[in-house]
């Protein structure tokens, strides 16, 4: 066989396998969306679930997912950016820094179930936060922190050295330089990464089963006092997120339309992740344009 | 810093600097504390099986007998350990060629089309919750295997198939980064010598990027090893070493999810489940060390 | 220097954390008041706007996923009647429920089994049993299997692997596929105790699923499959078989002819407080247990209908 023929065959194989991936994915997305889209309606998205009757919705679950996301991000972002700044600007190369970097790496590849079990043992039982949004948010923070650290590091590394030095030469303190010169420039990268990390929160279930719980207490959406137990904003109430709800109705669902609800909820979940991805890309582009144009 | 202490008033920018530094250090300390306490708690719980309940180390790691209810109870976790390894290795074997081909396609063959369509779709795949994967696996893959192979469809192959799709994004994105980071001169030199694309890829590009590609595969395997819900739904969960790829078996994660809620914390069976979680955690360390080793080789 | 400071600080912090965990571990039997932080907080908060005569407070019920739908449903009605009471119902399994009620994190621990079967005698002794319903289980098979009656011996032979083909039991020539529960499951304990009368081992090749939904799906789809489900989960996708000629109906369970059933327990640690007691009383009130009540509607059997009684050791007495 001549080298040309081999080349053609190899190219064909690569293209075919890539095509196979696209097919698998199209099939997967199609399967979920086709089964689920028909079930999505405004009513489905807003009404509470039913235990045994037909026509239950996913309103509280959707709200819980979003609220948990916000809570997680409120905890993760400042901590992650702080740790990222340390790693990128303050850490001096050496054994300690290497060690911390190793820890970040280990943390980022911890199985979610181990994090969930740790949450059950420490957050829920020892600290007594109980099955609550707060426990769930802390567990998810453990997941997202390493990601956030890495994103911040990447963002700060992308700042041109000259700009940083110019600021330092003007007599600004290191922290001031980071705060008012480097962080703004790094913002597009950090923001895009944050949104992508947020999408991960949305789909997580294994860790939340053990921390945020599987029940959806009745929520009174007119009560916005975050301290009241029926208020949707109370972070110390248990909350079932969308992903956990799918798991629950798949396994113990008694409602006659449980399969449809699971399919509908899966479709909603995927669409949300899609929106997150598109948002991250769009925002990244817009911000990059803005920052490069004003310079 | 010692000189500034002598002055009466500390300059504001020094205060500022210190606030920032303390804040950043605080964040990193918190991170380190978190991981230390995680290791501490899981380890104490996991080790209590041996220290408190007096179960022999050899029993857990050497026996294939899992009878938590027996008289006396026997806790041989070997089937689960083997199950975890075989599913994740098989998943990596399925996903690695696919992911590397997709990366080659995106970087070398049709960069424009790949970047615009293939990459977003693969990223989306990473965002699909594992519950949905499990659900699809149970409704599509399991019946499919049941129809064409002997057995019930559940088992290692079903689990590995679901996992391979789940870890595809990890492998692909790392491979893409590695291929894209290759200095263009390397490829151009090969082409200039008259090599075809495949010759360039197979003799220059792939060997140079091999450690990085393997890093992606190992990270994918680590993810497969720790995945819980999707696997539990399609693996069958019998506590035995299977005789074929289509026979019900268990993994470490599937046993934990299946029994953790049913057992009382502090009981012997519960402690053994924590031991399994400890094994999962230790395996994470192993995977990270392999990745580090590969990365060091990639730098050379 | 600074680096080592950081390291020392880290270690100190981790040790503090660890030590504080140890203390709590050492004293798991704290009263509900000290450990159930969230509950207390929540009740204090809701107490502010409550009238003095009305019930107010919050209840956390954790445990059995088989009992969860019922408690969930009843709690909604109860909260409608007592707007100042907030009830949170959690799944997580009987083991979790008993752990948490015993440790004081939960007010009520839902369980499919007697506490004595899971907890140490000392811990179980502190718990007060409130039986709220009866759940019956039936063996189910794939709809293609023509067998519609299995005796105790036949079931034992199937679940111990002595019979592996349906043709030995008068059915079609089809290998038997067992869809079991994990050995820690309360449903399996009930089935083994009252239907098989013996503990069984997990057979090579058997499927184990903890959730009724998955068991139903697998039995309905897998050729030759046999499993068991609570009556509330039965539908057309699986075929119910009689147990030694007796059909699994509410009547047969109530009069004691169909033996495969178990109590659903709601445990409290010591005697319940006012709010919890009101809720538990409501659980067994005619509104809930009656013909149109949630218990019947969700497929459980009302405790009031039972003509027989059973103790921890399985001894049956006429009421």
Overview of this protein structure:
The complex is a heterotrimer of chains A (295), B (300) and C (319). By secondary structure, chain A is mainly α. Chain A contains 11 helices and no strands. The longest helix of chain A has 37 residues, at 258-294. The model of chain A has no long low-confidence stretch (mean pLDDT 82). A two-stranded antiparallel ribbon of chain B has the order 1-2. Chain B has 300 residues and is mainly alpha-helical. In chain B, helix 7 packs antiparallel against helix 10. The longest helix of chain B has 40 residues, at 12-51. Chain C contains 14 helices and 14 strands. In chain C, strand 1 (57-63), helix 4 and strand 2 (85-92) form a beta-alpha-beta unit. The relative contact order of chain C is 0.15. Chains in contact: A-B, A-C, B-C. At the A-B interface, helix 1, helix 3, helix 4, helix 5 and helix 6 of A face helix 2, helix 4, helix 5, helix 6 and helix 9 of B. Chain B: It is a multi-pass membrane protein. Chain B: Keywords: Cell membrane, Membrane, Phosphate transport, Transmembrane, Transmembrane helix, Transport. Chain B: It comes from Paenibacillus mellifer. Chain B: GO terms for molecular function: phosphate transmembrane transporter activity.
Topology:
The complex is a heterotrimer of chains A (295), B (300) and C (319).
Chain A lengths: L2 H35 L4 H5 L12 H32 L4 H14 L3 H15 L6 H25 L3 H9 L4 H30 L2 H6 L30 H11 L5 H37 L1
Helix pairs in contact in A: 1-11, 3-6, 3-8, 4-6, 5-6, 6-8, 7-8, 8-11, 10-11
Chain B lengths: L1 H5 L5 H40 L5 H6 L3 E2 L6 E2 L2 H32 L1 H17 L2 H19 L7 H25 L3 H9 L4 H30 L2 H7 L16 H8 L8 H32 L1
Helix pairs in contact in B: 2-12, 4-5, 4-7, 4-9, 5-7, 6-7, 6-10, 7-9, 7-10, 8-9, 9-12, 10-11, 11-12
Chain C lengths: L1 H25 L5 H4 L1 H11 L9 E7 L4 H14 L3 E8 L1 H10 L4 E4 L3 H4 L2 H6 E15 L7 E2 L1 H8 L17 E4 L5 H11 L10 E2 L3 H10 L3 E6 L8 E2 L1 E2 L6 H5 L6 E9 L4 H10 L2 H4 L4 H4 L3 E2 L5 E3 L5 E3 L1
Parallel strand pairs in C: 1-2, 1-3, 5-10, 6-7, 6-8
Antiparallel strand pairs in C: 3-11, 4-8, 4-9, 4-11, 4-12, 13-14
GO molecular function (chain B): phosphate transmembrane transporter activity
Protein name (chain B): Phosphate transport system permease protein
Membrane topology (chain B): Multi-pass membrane protein
């Amino acid at each position: 066989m001549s080298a040309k023929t081999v080349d053609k065959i190899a190219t064909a194989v690569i293209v075919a396998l890539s095509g196979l991936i696209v097919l698998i994915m199209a099939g997967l997305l199609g399967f979920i969306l086709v089964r689920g889209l028909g079930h999505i309606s405004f009513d489905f998205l807003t009404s509470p679930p039913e235990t045994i009757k037909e026509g239950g919705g996913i309103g509280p679950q959707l709200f819980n997912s979003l609220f948990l996301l916000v809570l997680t991000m409120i905890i993760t972002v400042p901590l992650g950016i702080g740790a990222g700044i340390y790693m990128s600007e303050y850490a001096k190369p050496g054994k300690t820094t290497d060690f911390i970097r190793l820890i970040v790496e280990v943390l980022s590849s911890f199985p979610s179930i181990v994090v969930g079990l740790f949450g059950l043992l420490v957050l829920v039982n020892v600290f007594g936060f109980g099955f609550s949004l707060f426990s769930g948010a802390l567990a998810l923070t453990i997941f997202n922190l390493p990601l956030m650290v890495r994103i911040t590091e990447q963002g700060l590394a992308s700042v041109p050295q000259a700009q940083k030095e110019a600021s330092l030469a003007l007599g600004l303190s290191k922290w001031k330089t980071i705060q008012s010169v480097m962080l703004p420039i790094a913002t597009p990268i950090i923001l895009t990464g944050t949104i992508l990390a947020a999408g991960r929160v949305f789909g997580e279930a294994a860790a939340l089963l053990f921390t945020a719980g599987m029940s959806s207490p009745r929520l009174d959406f007119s009560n916005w006092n975050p301290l009241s137990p029926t208020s949707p904003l109370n972070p110390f109430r248990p909350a079932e997120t969308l992903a956990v709800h799918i798991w629950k109705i798949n396994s113990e669902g008694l409602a006659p339309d449980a399969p449809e609800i699971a399919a509908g909820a899966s479709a909603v979940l995927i669409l949300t992740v899609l929106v997150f991805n598109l948002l991250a890309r769009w925002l990244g582009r817009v911000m990059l344009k803005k920052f490069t144009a004003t310079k | 810093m010692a000189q500034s202490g002598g002055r009466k008033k500390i300059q504001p920018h020094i205060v500022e600097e210190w606030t920032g530094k303390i804040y950043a250090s605080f964040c990193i300390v918190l991170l380190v504390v978190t991981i230390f306490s995680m290791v501490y708690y899981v380890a104490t719980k996991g080790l209590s099986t041996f220290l408190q309940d007096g179960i022999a180390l050899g029993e857990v790691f050497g026996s294939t007998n899992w009878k938590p209810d027996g008289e006396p109870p026997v806790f041989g976790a070997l089937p689960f350990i083997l199950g975890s390894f075989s599913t994740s290795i098989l998943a990596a074997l399925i996903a690695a060629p696919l992911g590397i081909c997709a990366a080659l396609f995106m970087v070398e063959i049709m960069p424009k089309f790949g970047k615009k369509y293939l990459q977003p779709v693969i990223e989306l795949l990473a965002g699909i919750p594992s519950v949905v994967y499990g659900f699809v696996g149970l409704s599509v893959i399991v019946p499919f295997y049941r129809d064409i192979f002997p057995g019930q469809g559940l088992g290692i192959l079903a689990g590995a198939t679901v996992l391979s799709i789940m870890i595809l994004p990890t492998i692909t994105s790392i491979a893409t980064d590695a291929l894209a980071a290759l200095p263009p001169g390397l490829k151009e030199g090969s082409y200039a010598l008259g090599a075809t694309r495949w010759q360039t890829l197979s003799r220059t590009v792939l060997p140079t990027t091999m450690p990085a590609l393997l890093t992606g595969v190992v990270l994918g395997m680590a993810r497969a090893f720790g995945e819980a819900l999707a696997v539990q739904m399609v693996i069958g969960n019998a506590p035995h070493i299977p005789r074929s790829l289509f026979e019900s078996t268990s993994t470490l994660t599937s046993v934990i999810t299946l029994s953790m809620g049913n057992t009382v914390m502090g009981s012997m069976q519960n402690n053994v489940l924590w031991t399994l979680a400890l094994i999962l955690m230790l395996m994470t360390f192993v995977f990270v060390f392999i990745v580090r080793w590969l990365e060091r080789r990639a730098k050379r | 220097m600074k680096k080592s400071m950081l390291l020392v600080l880290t270690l100190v912090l981790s040790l503090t954390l660890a030590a504080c965990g140890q203390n709590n571990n050492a004293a798991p039997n704290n009263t509900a008041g000290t450990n159930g932080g969230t509950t207390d907080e929540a009740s204090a908060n809701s107490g502010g706007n409550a009238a003095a005569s009305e019930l107010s407070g919050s209840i956390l019920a954790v445990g059995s996923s088989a009992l969860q739908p019922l408690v969930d449903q009843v709690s909604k009605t109860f909260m409608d009647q007592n707007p100042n009471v907030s009830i949170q119902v959690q799944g997580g399994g009987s083991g979790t429920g008993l752990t948490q009620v015993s440790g004081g994190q939960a007010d009520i621990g839902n369980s499919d089994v007697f506490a004595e079967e899971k907890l140490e005698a000392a811990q179980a002794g502190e718990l007060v049993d409130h039986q709220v319903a009866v759940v019956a289980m039936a063996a189910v098979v794939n709809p293609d299997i023509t067998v519609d009656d299995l005796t105790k011996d036949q079931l034992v032979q199937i679940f111990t692997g002595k019979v592996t083909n349906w043709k030995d039991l008068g059915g079609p020539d089809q290998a038997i596929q067992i869809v079991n529960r994990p050995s820690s499951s309360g449903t399996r304990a009930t089935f083994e105790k009252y239907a098989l009368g013996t503990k069984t081992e997990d057979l090579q090749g058997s499927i184990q699923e903890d959730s009724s939904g998955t068991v139903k799906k697998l039995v309905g789809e897998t050729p030759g499959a046999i499993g068991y489900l609570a009556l509330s989960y039965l539908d057309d996708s699986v075929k119910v078989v009689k147990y030694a000629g007796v059909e699994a109906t509410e009547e047969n369970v109530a009069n004691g002819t169909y033996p495969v059933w178990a109590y659903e327990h709601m445990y409290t640690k010591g005697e319940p407080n006012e709010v919890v007691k009101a809720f538990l009383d409501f659980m067994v009130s005619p509104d809930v247990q009656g013909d149109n009540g949630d218990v019947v509607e969700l497929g459980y059997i009302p405790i009031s209908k039972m003509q027989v009684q059973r103790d921890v050791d399985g001894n049956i007495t006429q009421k």
